[in-house]
């Protein structure tokens, strides 16, 4: 099933009802009774549930079922694709959203070196202790102390930020704390 996007000149607070398309309607037997409500948080966390329509919901007719979106979720759903899958552990949804920002991934040392050499702007944040940093550091990196934390909070949200530590465990942990 796909949700088609809204034209750029359309009022985002009052988008019209849209029509989508579905694959096999037998895959969604429970949808015949209710509509699938999709909520997309500002962090692109998804809540999918079969529910009744509310007054503020925007309905997307997908033939075999109706998708319901609240206005904020509808703005984040432009191009959204939802599929129902069945496996050995049961059924579930797969959501593909082209609006979702890229996720976090591990970088190898050669990948980081290539980023530095490319000249593409990014912030390199060292999450190790000052003692570890005194032994070895990457030029241009910023220590994640109180000042470094305040600096990061003031960055443009589109800036690429790379967290660096010795093995990758602390950088993953700090990334989770700062993105919460």
Topology, element by element:
Elements: E1 18-19, E2 35-40, E3 46-51, E4 58-61, E5 66-69, H1 71-76, E6 81-87, E7 90-96, H2 109-118, E8 123-126, H3 130-135, E9 142-143, H4 146-153, E10 161-164, H5 169-179
Parallel strand pairs: 1-4, 2-5, 8-9, 8-10
Antiparallel strand pairs: 2-3, 4-5, 6-7
Structure description:
By secondary structure, the protein is of the alpha/beta class. The chain folds into two domains: 18-96, HesB-like domain (Hypothetical Protein Aq_1857, Chain: A, Sandwich), CATH 2.60.300.12; 109-179, Oxidized Rhodanese, domain 1 (3-Layer(aba) Sandwich). The chain has five helices and ten strands. It has helices at residues 71-76, 109-118, 130-135, 146-153, 169-179; strands at 18-19, 35-40, 46-51, 58-61, 66-69, 81-87, 90-96, 123-126, 142-143, 161-164. Strands 1-4-5-2-3 form a five-stranded mixed β-sheet. The two termini are 31 Å apart.
Short description:
Helix content is 23%, strand content 26%. The protein is an alpha/beta fold.
Spell out the key features of this protein.
180 residues; alpha/beta; Hypothetical Protein Aq_1857, Chain: A; Oxidized Rhodanese, domain 1; 2 domains; five-stranded mixed sheet; three-stranded parallel sheet; 10 strands; elongated
Q: What is the CA-atom radius of gyration, in angstroms?
A: 22 Å
Total number of helices: 5
Helix content: 10-25%
By DSSP, the count of extended strands is 10
Low-confidence stretches: 3-32
**Any idea what the CATH superfamily of the largest domain is called?**
HesB-like domain
Beta-strand percentage?
25-35%
Pairing-aware structural class of the strands and helices? alpha/beta
Q: SSE order, as H and E?
A: EEEEEHEEHEHEHEH
Q: For this structure, what is the CATH class of the largest domain?
A: Mainly Beta
Please, what is the average pLDDT? 78
State the major sheet.
5 strands, mixed
CATH topology of the largest domain: Hypothetical Protein Aq_1857, Chain: A
| Global shape | elongated
